[in-house]
Amino acid sequence: MKPRTTLVTLFTAALLLFPLAAAQRIISLAGEVTEVIFALGAEDQLVAVDATSNFPAAANDLPNVGYHGRLSAEALLAFEPTLVIANNQAGPPEVLAQLEGAGVQVVHIGSDLSLDTPVENVRFIAGLIGEKEQGEKLADELSTKIAAVAARGAELEPKPRVLFLYLGARSMQFAGGADTASNVMIEAAGGIDVGKEVGFVGNVPFTPEAIVTAAPDVIIVTERGIAAVGSVDEVLKIPGVSETPAAKAGNVIVFEDLYFLGLGLRSGDALAELVDYLHSLQ
Question: Staple 251 to which of 23, 27, 109, 246, CB 3.0 to 4.6 Å?
Answer without folding.
Answer: 246
